[in-house]
Design goal:
Layout (H helix, E strand, L loop, with lengths): L6 H16 L19 H21 L4 H16 L2 H13 L7 H6 L5 H20 L4 H22 L8 H8 L7 H17 L4 H26 L4 H19 L3
Helix pairs in contact: 2-3, 2-7, 3-6, 4-6, 4-11, 6-11, 7-9, 7-10, 7-11, 9-10, 10-11
């Protein structure tokens, strides 16, 4: 009979596995890492990434770097931290959806070569994020955390609610880890708490805090549902597309507040 590690150690190992899987953050190798359930911690990793981006943005602000340059650097850093994992999925998804024959879409998405529509999708996502973030002058660190969090929550919701279209692949592992909407409720509560933190910091920002919850949950839900409508399910690529488009549209929505 093998000795099971204490629950807190197992939790930390699972979180560490998720950070290694979803980011390029250099971490030392630790025995006992398991990558089967990394999707359950994707939202926490997203909040961590958003926190890093917010910290860097705040530091650049103190150095007097203009907001447009800061925004471009922050978005570029986000791509670097994730290794372009989700952006690559968004590009492959765009190439697949551009195919007129629905039966060939998965085949095109599996092709490692990037097509014209994939390149255009990447450009659009980066431009939307940079432009929207430039228009947001206050509470940028908290908004970045929320954006990265809602993107991963949308991914988790898509995993839980829609069928996986391939028999194998990285996404199949995620589907086994998240099988019910109950698995995404803790993440939803966390994101509501992040928005509530804005209200605690400045009670006059209650409209923005409410908008963060409404826009984040609505965009994350609709984005996953739209890709399901177009493809009849999801793949690892569309999970990445949900993350990227949710982040971009969320930031765009908040420019009105």
């Amino acid at each position: 009979m093998t000795n099971q590690p204490p629950w807190w150690k197992k939790l930390l190992l699972n979180l560490l596995s998720s950070v290694i899987f979803y980011t390029t953050i250099p971490l030392p190798y630790v025995n006992g890492l398991e990558f089967g359930g990394v999707a359950r911690f994707a939202l926490l990793v997203g909040v961590l990434i958003g926190g890093i981006l917010g910290l860097c943005d705040t530091g650049m602000s103190y150095l007097g770097i203009p907001i447009l340059t800061r925004s471009a650097l922050v978005i570029s850093l986000g791509i670097g931290i994730t290794g372009g994992l989700h952006l690559d999925g968004a590009m492959d998804t765009a190439d697949g959806l551009a195919v007129g024959d629905p039966k060939r879409r998965l085949e095109v998405m599996a092709d490692s070569a990037t097509g014209a529509f994939g390149a255009m999708a990447a450009i659009a996502i980066v431009l939307l994020k940079t432009a929207a973030l430039t228009e947001i002058e206050e509470n940028r660190w908290l908004i970045l955390m929320a954006a990265c969090g809602w993107g991963r929550w949308g991914q988790q919701l898509a995993i839980a609610c829609y069928p996986y279209l391939k028999l194998s692949g990285k996404g199949a592992v995620h589907k086994q880890a998240i099988q019910s909407y109950k698995d995404v409720l803790p993440g939803l509560l966390l994101l509501i708490g992040i928005s509530g933190l804005l209200f605690l910091i400045d009670s006059q920002q209650r409209c923005l805090a409410l908008a963060m919850v409404i826009a984040g949950s609505a965009i994350a839900t609709i984005t996953g549902a739209w890709f399901n409508h177009k493809l009849g399910g999801h793949t690892g690529d569309t999970y990445g597309a949900v993350v990227e488009w949710t982040e971009a549209l969320f930031l765009c929505a908040l420019t009105g507040f």
